[in-house]
Specification:
The chain has about 500 residues and is an alpha+beta fold. It folds into two domains: about 140 residues, no CATH class; about 260 residues, no CATH class. The protein has 15 helices and 19 strands. Strand 5 and strand 6 form a beta hairpin. Helix 1 packs antiparallel against helix 2, helix 1 crosses helix 9 and helix 3 runs antiparallel to helix 8. The protein is globular, with a radius of gyration of 25 Å. The two termini are about 45 Å apart.
Amino acid sequence: MQAIGRQPQRAPDGVPLHYERHRPESTTLYRLVQQHAASFIAHTEASTGSELPRFIKDEFDAFLECGILAHGFLRLHCGQCGHDKLLAFSCKRRGFCPSCGARRMSQTAAHLVDHVIPHVPVRQWVLSLPIPLRVLLAAQPELVTSVLQVVQRVLTRHLLDSAQLEADEGHGGAVTLIQRFGSAANLNIHLHGLLLDGVYRCGADGVPQFVEVGSPTDDELHALLQAIITRLMKLLTRRGVLVEDMGQTYLAQADEDGEEARTLRPLQAAAITYRIAFGPRAGQKVLTLRVAMPRETAARQPLCADIDGFSLHAAVRVEANDRKRLEQLCRYITRPALSDERVQLNDAGQVELELKTPWRDGTTHLVMSPLEFMQRLAALVPRPRLHLIRFHGVLAPNAKLRALVVPQGPQGTDVQEQATETSGASEREAETVQDQSRPHRISWARLLKRVFDIDMQHCPNCGGGELKIIAAILERPVIEKILTHLGLDPQPPPRVRTRQAGQD
């Protein structure tokens, strides 16, 4: 497990760095979407005779407006020296935007550590699924809830047995993230569960006490995976999505009616199997680039079971007092699918997507045309209102014991630091800091300071003044006037709007 995101950096004198806009229009990823998104949508709809789902078109449109000052911004002002700073609005989408994905990663990790996960040992359980089930869950995401219930029941039962407690005597807790991508930005639906490494037992006074359990053995892990597989097969068979015939199990014939089935499902299936969905190379594998030496076959990983395409991994454990490593783990499982640095164009105009870790055969990059890359991006976009983080057991929102076990926010000096950092905020925000009776989202300014050591509140011009938000600039004439006055380009980067392309 590796920490995700930039490491804290400081100026030579040790002073925290000041925030600088990341300028998405200068990145290769932005230029690719800017130049090829409309063509991809038009080509896909022409090939299938059906319209691409609206939420995917909206994702491309929103990404092209993310971080662009010409589409609106916050105006921050230093009362001491009069310096103004502009903060562009973000798209806040969950598909492939690296900036918003990194922000959500850091914000979610801080929230989980400060307000959700108790100060007890935590173990990460990772369940990978065979390709047919990935295709099934991509096409029918409503099934994910039932799959999660099966997995949680099996693992909770194991923890209760390890603690020598009956089902009504103990309570487990978990946070599960539904991760939709693999290391190559492929569509790979799998589950990352942060389970409390033990259970809570209520004493005579009603106060829950945590009972820690030991690590599972390899035999226990294999038995747990077998139990999960058996129950999942029964569940999906009852739901009618799996069919048993002569001792073999198959996916039931999918309903191909509707525009979404003719456009989105081929994109998803191709992204799962590293293939091309549409175009002259439809059905072919994505090309690879090998510049690294093949790795020797590694020894079998500890606490990892593999059965018929299923995989269950439980080797990562975080101790109760190691909150820093816990936050790193939370950031790892909530990381975005892409980073700007991994997407480049070669001399032939093809997209080279760098792998975070070379494959065993020495592959370091995937190579594809811009339109084929757009197919990969479209497949990564989740449906609206699809919850990717779930809470179970004592950590569930309505659990009776939740208020007694979850942390109530930063402790000690952290609370004082939080109050100090928000001194320049509104009066309402200051009151929110002091009110620790319920969890609150950490402010973005404090989050930048906490994760990246970037100072968002103090003026970069004078160093002593505090930056305060004085206005949200949304109206086009005002935007143009301010940007022109500051010598910045008042016009957004030129592009063909995807909504218009879809209507042509």
